[in-house]
Design goal:
The complex is a heterodimer of chains A (about 625) and B (about 500).
Chain A lengths: L4 H17 L5 H28 L10 E10 L5 E8 L1 H24 L6 H19 L4 H19 L6 H32 L4 H4 L14 E2 L2 E2 H16 L8 H4 L5 H10 L4 H8 L1 H7 L1 H22 L5 H21 L9 H31 L15 H15 L5 H16 L1 H26 L15 H16 L5 H4 L13 H22 L5 H8 L1 H8 L4 H47 L7 H21 L1
Antiparallel strand pairs in A: 1-2, 3-4
Helix pairs in contact in A: 1-2, 1-4, 2-3, 2-4, 3-4, 3-10, 3-15, 3-19, 4-5, 5-6, 6-8, 8-11, 10-15, 12-13, 13-14, 13-18, 14-15, 14-17, 14-18, 15-16, 15-17, 15-19, 16-17, 16-18, 16-19, 17-18, 17-21, 18-21
Chain B lengths: L5 H15 L3 H31 L7 E9 L4 E7 L1 H20 L7 H20 L3 H22 L4 H29 L7 H6 L4 H18 L8 H8 L2 H26 L1 H28 L3 H21 L3 H32 L10 H4 L1 H14 L6 H13 L5 H28 L17 H19 L2 H10 L1 H8 L1
Antiparallel strand pairs in B: 1-2
Helix pairs in contact in B: 1-2, 1-4, 2-3, 3-4, 3-10, 3-13, 3-18, 4-5, 4-10, 5-6, 5-10, 6-8, 6-9, 8-10, 8-11, 9-10, 9-12, 10-11, 10-12, 10-13, 11-12, 11-17, 12-13, 12-17, 13-15, 13-16, 13-18, 13-19, 15-17, 15-18, 16-18
Classes of the chains: A mainly alpha (about 625), B mainly alpha (about 500).
Chain lengths: ~625, ~500
């Protein structure tokens, strides 16, 4: 399967080509080159998946494959960074997800970004992102993952800041990069720690279940936790940064300043789930070496999920609602991993998490692309500027509705199946956990339908010109993604991906399923009642709890807190004093030394006056003194 | 004659030719030819060196030659290279080459300017090929003196002050260094000035305790060791473009190179004993420089402080005294040299157009001068350690190497040094955001023109080198790594 190297090379070459010569091409030519190259990549990814999953299983599992592998950088005898391609069920699954969504976004952008300044640059960056993301998921070792982790970070930075004359976009891109960089510091330290004690970067060695590899860390503890636990916590911090887990989530809502297709690709479907993927990749290590950390990840996920769902209920910018919804859904995936065990039914959470990652990527990308179509025609992100659009945008309306039903967990749409598995796993971990997650699922249904009714129903806002349906290049990707959303739930996902690689047959837990459907329907009903036609209950609720509403609207002031830390503490209380210290104390000491020597020179330069009389006088005086001394003594 | 001497001979010939040249065209021809020859020579040397090594030649130094210069003091003109010097020579030749092109349109006294520039190159190349302490010191001094005139005459801003400060501080460093070198010479038996021969001798530990700090600080001043780094911001800010490039790109590397080639290699026992003091100082340099860079508003100051941070990392890694970290240190020297040269080149080009280096007075330049803008972003990304560019490779090697020390002190210092990757991102993105993105601040800037051919050429050469190291680092890291085995044996002994 050596051809899989092309899956990486094609987008990379496209990036280099478009980056160097894009401006010499006509905008459309550049975009067709980008899309065509990605279409081929997608085809290759599907072929790989086809071959991989039709291979005979060995001992009941799909064997890992390493079609490409070479040494890239050498550190010590045991530690070296290798680059390569690792094919195993989750990486192949991710290849399919990434290429599919990326292809849809490429096609969609042909219409959405048409006529934008820097159209060629946009396609170059999209290729760069796709390349980096693909490199990340096929990484056979943790350092390659880190390398591509940084690269997706920078492509995200470049794409968020695509409209580089817009101050908000610049600020958002900077924020996204720095917050995730901060998290990556944790990731890096985690890698250093883990590799020091295990003397390997290789995933295969780390996850082989061979406990000898952790022998070096035996008995080494720090603040009461084993050192491997600490390493895994640090690595999770990296994942939490990319996956926007609380309290490192602050960059994601701002990242919506980027072009909408970019939000769909990077900030909904692929890059933001990198953290989930990272935990899944190291899952056997978490389970065996640090089960407490894994449960901690579950709690972080649950809290984030709740927080983001509450905030999503009061946002008025449609992209921000979707952004918070993304954060909340990633929280679900983290919860699923956190409550999961290894093997058989124990591993349900793992499978559910990956399944939800898959289905969520499709329907969330769809939601964003629909939002893009709406923004494209309305020219605003604000809910209040919309309303009644169902008449004007039939395709967008239907596809958006499908995605909303999917994310709310209504059968037979894909979200129902994956979310139901997560809820089941949560209930089996602890009933309270299950109840909490079901409640959040209810909130999800509520805010999604709040969004839906506000956009497509409700009071039509007055528009300067009549809204119109998006062009074909945009609606076709919507329909394809909607198709996947409708059908994906019936994929026997457990046959391909499970915690131990063995076939796992998904059984719907009808008790949980019924409850969650009922909750979702109630939430949808409430949303319909509130927002379908004019109704003053939301306003009254808002006035009843003004403090709460304001706090939630301002995302509970987490951003302000960070701003305080960075602006007031780091900038004013650390950097400025250091710079002042450098200029005045250290440099001052040197200048002082120079000044003192200058003064002394002035003071003693009289001795070198060059006047013979003075020299003669001093000479005589000296002689006399010596004579006197000799005589006296 | 040994072909390594060509590295000195070519600049000498250039200097001679410049003396008799009469117009700018001739000057340019001489400089471009000479610099190209040097670059070719360095590339040839690299391939010859790698060829020798692959044939199984495991001598410490290759292409050795020696001739007596002053017998009573055992001073020889002896040359030889290992992988580290080869890497440094390659770096120097690239920077000299691109420096010539960025100075293409110099107006004030071009002949004199290039004469001093050649003298500087003589010093730099001579330093890296020498294996004799005294000869090395001599070349070191040759490299420092022209700096005074280049900044004092062709500089901008507070140039006299900056030139004086830089020269005095570096001279102060040399004074310590001279004492250190003499100490090494006499305590090693006083029978040889050759580094390789002294390394075989034993210098009493109580003497090493005296002379190690002297030598280390002596070289450290040039390597921007905290708190002797303050010449760097003023010096770089006032220096003309190519001089900043050469200074930050190559001259500061003399410091780091000397630190391990002389101080640590010859006095390993003291290095082990006293490393902790300098680890503290360099650890401070790393974060201190980065934090200072955050609040600067002058482009060159930002870069100068960033250099303090990055060069601090070089010395920090050297002091880790293990093969991986030290390999990382040399790679960081290379990487920092290339990317600061790129930075200073770009800043010079931007300054040449806008006549200001204050980021508050600029904005939105990406739209107006896209080529320079994109290159600036690339330089920034290299500086903040983006994989695929040279900075990442060097930093990761350093961090992994430093992390191999299991004790708390080294751990904590390594973690502190690691935090610089975040702070670096902050100041780089701050500058990029203010300078290139957003609205155009000054209306006159709409008339600016993008880079011309010689500017593009210089910048592209640097970017190719940066990306080359970043994409395929293995040959370089192996070359450097193998050259450290001799030093490692000395250290373990």
């Amino acid at each position: 399967m050596e051809y899989t190297i092309l899956i990486l090379l094609l987008p990379m070459l496209t990036f280099v080509g478009l980056g160097l010569f894009g401006m010499k091409l006509r905008p459309n030519t550049a975009s067709y080159i980008g899309s065509l190259s990605l279409a081929i990549t997608t085809l290759l990814a599907y072929t790989t998946a086809g071959f991989y999953f039709t291979m005979p299983r060995i001992d009941g599992i799909f064997a890992r494959q390493l079609p490409v592998h070479f040494e890239w950088l050498h550190f010590t005898e045991t530690l070296h960074i290798d680059l390569g391609i690792l094919l195993d069920p989750i990486s192949v699954m991710m290849l399919v997800v990434i290429t599919t969504v990326s292809l849809m976004v490429h096609i969609y952008s042909l219409g959405y970004m048409k006529g934008e300044r820097g159209f060629q640059r946009y396609y170059a960056f999209l290729s760069l992102f796709t390349f980096s993301m693909l490199g990340l998921v096929v990484a056979p070792n943790i350092f390659q993952m880190y390398i591509f982790w940084e690269l997706v970070g920078v492509s995200s930075y470049l794409l968020i800041g695509f409209y580089y004359t817009k101050p908000a976009a610049i600020a958002a891109s900077k924020k996204a990069f720095i917050v995730t960089r901060f998290a990556d510091l944790g990731f890096l330290l985690g890698i250093l720690l883990l590799s020091y004690f295990t003397q390997t970067f290789d995933f295969e060695a780390l996850t082989s279940g061979n406990s000898a590899i952790f022998a070096g860390a035996a008995g080494v503890t720090f603040l009461g936790g084993s050192v491997i636990s600490w390493a895994l916590v640090l690595i999770f911090i990296g994942g939490a940064g990319k996956s926007a887990m609380f309290p490192l989530h602050i960059w994601l809502p701002d990242a919506m300043e980027g072009p909408t297709p970019v939000s769909a690709l990077i900030h909904a479907a692929t890059m933001v789930v990198a953290g989930v993927y990272l935990v899944a990749r190291l899952f056997p290590v978490y389970v065996s070496a640090a089960p407490d950390v894994l449960i901690g990840i579950g709690y972080v996920g649950a809290f984030t999920s709740l927080y983001a769902a509450v905030v999503a209920c009061v946002q008025t910018d449609i992209k921000r609602v979707l952004a918070f919804s993304t954060i909340s859904q990633i929280g679900f995936m983290m919860v699923a991993l956190g409550v999961s065990g290894m093997g058989g039914h124990q591993g349900l959470g793992y499978m559910a998490s990956m399944f939800h990652l898959f289905t969520h990527a499709m329907f969330k990308a769809l939601l964003f692309l629909c939002a893009g179509a709406i923004i494209h025609t309305i020219g605003s992100n604000e809910m209040s500027h919309m309303g009644g659009l169902r008449k004007y945008m039939p395709y967008t309306h239907i596809t958006f509705l499908i995605a909303c039903l999917a994310i709310s967990g209504i059968p037979p749409f894909s979200g129902f199946f994956s979310k139901d598995e997560i809820l089941t796993a949560a209930f089996e971990f602890h009933p309270n956990f299950g109840i909490l997650m079901s409640f959040i699922a209810g909130l999800t249904a509520f805010y999604m339908f709040r969004l839906y009714y506000n956009i497509f129903w409700g009071t039509p806002a007055t528009h300067e010109h009549t809204p119109h349906e998006a062009p074909k290049s945009m609606t076709i990707p919507l329909m394809i993604l909607a198709g996947i959303t409708v059908l994906a739930g019936f994929i026997p996902f457990g046959h391909f991906v499970s915690s131990d690689g063995l076939v796992y047959n998904i059984h719907l837990n009808w008790g949980v399923a019924t409850a969650s459907i009922v909750i979702a329907l109630i939430a949808i009903g409430v949303a319909a009642f509130f927002y379908k036609s004019r109704c003053d209950i939301p306003d009254r609720l808002m006035h009843m709890y003004p403090q709460f509403h304001k706090a939630a609207y301002h995302r509970f002031y987490i951003d302000e807190f960070y701003l305080f830390i960075t602006k007031r503490i780091i900038f004013n209380c650390v950097s400025r004093p250091i710079a002042w210290f450098d200029r005045h104390i250290i440099d001052g000491a040197l200048n002082g030394m120079a000044y003192v020597s200058q003064r002394i020179s002035y003071a003693i330069r009289g001795f070198q006056s060059g006047q013979i009389q003075q020299y003669a006088f001093v000479f005589l005086l000296g002689t006399l003194l010596i004579v006197l001394l000799v005589v006296l003594i | 004659m040994n072909f390594l001497s060509l590295f000195v001979l070519i600049p000498v010939l250039m200097l001679g030719a410049l003396l008799i040249s009469s117009n700018i065209k001739q000057i340019r021809t001489i400089c471009a030819t000479g610099a190209s020859l040097l670059l070719l020579l360095a590339i040839t040397l690299t391939s010859l060196y790698l060829g020798e090594r692959s044939l199984g030649n495991t001598a410490d130094m290759l292409f050795k030659a020696s001739s007596t210069w002053y017998a009573p003091l055992h001073i020889h003109y002896s040359v030889g290279v290992d992988g580290i010097s080869v890497a440094m020579l390659l770096l120097s030749s690239i920077i000299v080459f691109t420096g010539i092109f960025t100075s293409w349109k110099i107006e004030l006294l071009p002949k004199e300017y290039f004469i001093w520039f050649c003298l500087l190159s003589i010093g730099v190349f001579g330093f890296f090929i020498s294996t004799d302490l005294f000869t090395m010191f001599m070349f070191y001094e040759i490299a420092l003196i022209p700096m005074y005139l280049l900044i004092g005459v062709w500089g901008t801003g507070k140039k006299e002050y900056a030139a004086m400060k830089l020269t005095l501080m570096l001279m102060g460093g040399s004074a310590l260094l001279l004492v250190g070198i003499l100490g090494i010479y006499f305590n090693a038996g006083g029978s040889s000035m050759n580094i390789l021969e002294i390394a075989q001798q034993y210098i009493p530990v109580e003497m090493q305790r005296w002379f190690f700090p002297l030598t280390f600080i002596g070289f450290g001043v040039l390597g921007a060791l905290f708190p002797f780094h303050t010449w760097s911001p003023d010096g770089h800010a006032s220096a003309p473009t190519a001089v900043s490039m050469l200074h930050a790109g190559v001259l500061m590397k003399l410091g780091g190179y000397g630190c391990f080639r002389v101080a640590i290699y010859l006095m390993p026992e003291a290095a082990h004993e006293l490393a902790w003091i300098f680890i503290l100082l360099t650890g401070i340099s790393v974060v201190y420089g980065a934090y200072s860079a955050i609040v600067q508003t002058d482009l060159k100051y930002i870069n100068a402080y960033s250099s303090v941070s990055h060069c601090g990392l070089v010395l920090f890694a050297i002091l880790m005294l293990n093969q991986t970290a030290m390999t990382g240190a040399v790679m960081q020297m290379l990487s920092h040299g290339l990317m600061t040269a790129l930075f200073f080149a770009l800043i010079g080009m931007i300054y040449g157009r806008t006549h200001t280096r204050d980021i508050r007075e600029m904005g939105g330049l990406m739209k107006i001068i896209p080529f320079l803008g994109v290159c600036y972003v690339i330089a920034g990304l290299a500086s903040l350690g983006l994989p695929g560019l040279s900075g990442f490779v060097a930093e990761m090697t350093i961090f992994v190497g430093s992390f191999q020390h299991a004790d708390l002190f080294h751990r904590v210092m390594t973690i502190i040094a690691c935090t610089s990757i975040v702070i670096t991102a902050v100041y780089i993105l701050r500058v990029v955001g203010k300078l290139l993105y957003g609205k155009v601040v000054n209306e006159h800037h709409f008339q600016l023109t993008d880079a011309v051919w010689y500017e593009r050429f210089a910048v592209i050469v640097l970017i190719i080198a940066i990306a080359g190291i970043g994409l395929a680092p293995l040959w370089l890291s192996d070359m450097i790594r193998d050259s450290f085995s001799g030093l490692m044996t000395a250290l373990i002994k």
